[in-house]
# Entry
Amino acid sequence: MGVSRRSMLAGTAAGVLAPVVGFTGTAAAAGPVRRITLYAEALPDGLYGYGLEPGKATIPGPLLEIYEGDTLEIELVNTTDQRLSIHPHGVNYDTASDGAPLNASFNNPRETRTYTWRTRARYEASGGFWMPGSAGYWHYHDHAMGTDHGTGGLARGLYGGLIVRRRGDLLPSKQYTVVFNDMMINHRMAPDTPMFEANLGERVEWICIGHGSLPHTFHLHAHRWADTRTGMLNGASDNAQVVDNKNLDPGSSFGFQVIAGEGVGPGAWMYHCHVQTHSDGGMAGLFLVRNADGSLPAGAQDAIDRFKQHGHTGHDANPDARTHA
Ligand SMILES: [Cu+2]
# Structure
């Protein structure tokens, strides 16, 4: 039932594990050590991003994905003239890899520094109780730019998703990282927000992350998921709550998988913040479910056009611009 690295690579659309250059640990308990190099780079318009190759920085940064038990060594190359770091949620690290100036854990301008993240499987503690493992939909971000809390880095794009999987977790065919950050989605506002695409029936994984200083709620049209670690039920008698809307406040994260268009068919479906002033203000995007053969379903282009023409109060204050043609 173990999932081989080969199948994990095949199952991760982002291919983030591709740059891993070596496995050194062989002890089963410790798991392999995976090594990557991340480049923190300046982007146009005063923004910054993380990337797996020089010149390839993105907002959000690359989706990092490991298994419980793995250790991830990140060599962070700071190509900028700013102090910055990388700070993870959900994994274990010592103070030197905290990514916080409090622990003098950061990259000075132009400095390269290695951060080590460790994970573990859940384990039985005394008394028959179980301690949680590291598996979850987590995230990472700068914790040193601008202030000791990384407020400047978060505001300028230094963040990304981190998945720690449990062996046997179902792997998706597509993955989308969605970051609600102040009034932006992945640092953009409608109608320039990402349009995520899948074909009818594809297994799609969403990784949702909150940042900034505003509370948000993530809503996806026409699809729903179980409010569990994986977004899935454990069996026919699992009564976990099923949701299609979930709080996404600063620092929080969750993930789930849906089968694109299942039970509802293909089409242009919205995802958006359900705080009404936020969706009106531009925190909305499209999940385009194509036909199974990849063609555009009837009506989808009209819906996309309407979305693109739709003014948002945070994007264009002219009320005339909000009138649909
Ligand atoms: Cu919001």
In short: The pocket of copper (II) ion is lined by residues 180, 214, 216, 273, 275, 278, 283 (CB under 6 Å). The longest helix spans residues 300-309. The helical segments are 5-11, 151-156, 276-280, 300-309. The CA atoms of residues 9 and 15 lie 6 Å apart.
